[in-house]
Structure formats: structure tokens, C-alpha cells
Amino acid sequence: MAIEKLFVKEGIRDSQLEEYLGDMFDKAGYSHTEMQRTPMGTRIIIFAHRPGLIIGKSGRRIQELTEAIKVRFGIENPLLDVKEVDEPLLDPAIVAKRIARSLEKGINFKKVCNFYLEEVTKGGAIGITIRVAGKLAGVERSRFAKFRRGFVAHSGEYAETLVRNGFTRAAMKPGMVGIQVKIMMESPKEITVKQKVPSVEDIVAGA
What we know:
- The protein has seven helices and seven strands; from the N terminus they run αββααβααββαββα.
- By secondary structure, it is an alpha+beta fold.
- The protein has two domains: about 80 residues, K homology (KH) domain (GMP Synthetase, Chain A, domain 3), CATH 3.30.300; about 100 residues, Ribosomal protein S3 C-terminal domain, CATH 3.30.1140.32.
- The longest helix is centred in the N-terminal third of the chain and has 22 residues.
């Protein structure tokens, strides 16, 4: 098999595995999965807010999941590891899913998005962008709405290295609604906060 076709096949399989795990462990606060191919096998790292729901009692569920992944996706010798997401409000995948669940419960999308803008920035992010697209607020045609607070790089090196991305869908009665969340945790080194230098008048007034 040509190397290009092999990469495409692996990419499709990885995407299917991500969707499979996301659906299975939604209640565990599933975030994302990282795969590392080693000479010993394929290491699959699952990130979630409540890892105990994935591991199960005495690790039994992990053993069952390992066998299921091996059979379903044809991954030889999968090595599963589960890591906890300590701050779920700073994880864009988890935030996107929480927004989706709120929309499915009928909560107004503007109220939901503004709530998470506030919570994420309070949690320590320097910026967050939320984009929702689909049939919103009872409109017949699809539309999109964008919410932003703080600074988020949207292109270039900083967008690739400093911005975390999350995406999911909400199943609404009029149709599917896509939710994309971008969270930026660090400021670029070139951006500095300038402090005001007090004038002589300010010093005298404060004396």
C-alpha cells in the first residue's frame, strides 16, 4: 500500500475511534484522545474529567475496552492510558459539549454562550471564541453566531501552538447545530502589558 493511502486510512480510523470514544464516555467528561505509535504497540491516551468512569472497578472496563478497540478498529496491541482533565472549563472540547447539552435542553444559545465566556475567562484563559452554526432560535434558515472575549489568535504560529480547539454537535429538533470553541491560555511573548508611569502631579497628589 502506498504511503499516502496508508496515512489516509489511519487518519480515517483515528477519527472513527475518536467519535466512538466520545459517544461512549460522554458522561465521563470526555475531552479527546491522543495516539502514539511505538515499537511495542499503539498507545492510546484518553483525556477525561472523570477518568474513574472509564477505568471502571479494578480496571476491568479498560481491559474490555482494549479488546473492543483491537477487534473493532484492527489496532494491534493497543495500550490504553487514561488521564484526568483537571480544569474542564479550560478544555475546549468539554466546554463545547456542555454548550451542546444546554442547547439540547432548550436553553437560549446567547445565554449559554455568554455564560461560558464569563466562566472560562474567570478560570484563567486570556481569550475564548465560541461559534455556533445551524438553525438557531427558531429561524427557518441556518445561520451562525460568534461570541468572543479577550484575545484569541486565529492564524499563524500562535494559533497553532497557543490555541486549543474543540468541536461538537447538538441534536436540535430543527436540525444539527455545530459548536466550535477556541481557548487561548497564554499571551504571545511579543505582547506585553504596558504600565502607566505616574506623572509628577500624580506623585504630589498622592503624597
